Amino acid sequence: MQMLFGLVIGGMNSVAGAIVGGLFLEFLPGLVASLGKGLSAVLFAVLLIAGIVAMPNGVAGSVASALPRLAARLRRLFSSP
C-alpha cells in the first residue's frame, strides 16, 4: 500500500514526482508510526483517496500545471499601474 501511496503522491510522469513520492515513502511512515498500526493504515488510506481526488497527476504534475497560472497572475498583479 505504501508503494501505491508513493506513486499517487509523486505522479508517474516526471523525475521530480518520483523524488517527491520517494520522500513521502521514506519519512511519512515514521511520522505516523506513533499512531498505531490500525490508525496509521486508515490515515494512509484517507491520504491516498484525497491525493487521487485532489491531484490526479500527483504533486509534481499539480505544481507543474499550477506554475503557468501563478506566473500569469503575478504578471497581471505587477503589470497593472
What does this structure look like?
This protein has 81 residues and is mainly alpha-helical. Helices cover 83% and strands 0% of the residues. It contains 4 helices and no strands.
Can you tag this structure with a few keywords?
elongated, mainly alpha, 81 residues, 83% helix, 4 helices
What's the arrangement of secondary structure elements?
Layout: H1 2-10, H2 15-32, H3 37-54, H4 58-79
Helix pairs in contact: 1-2, 1-3, 1-4
Secondary structural class:
mainly alpha
User: How would you name the oligomeric state of the polypeptide chains in this document?
Assistant: single chain
Q: What average pLDDT do the residues reach? A: 80
Give helix % range.
over 70%
* Number of DSSP E strands: 0
Radius of gyration: 16 Å
* Overall body shape: elongated
Number of helices: 4
What's this, in brief?
The protein is mainly α and 81 residues long. It is 83% helix and 0% strand.
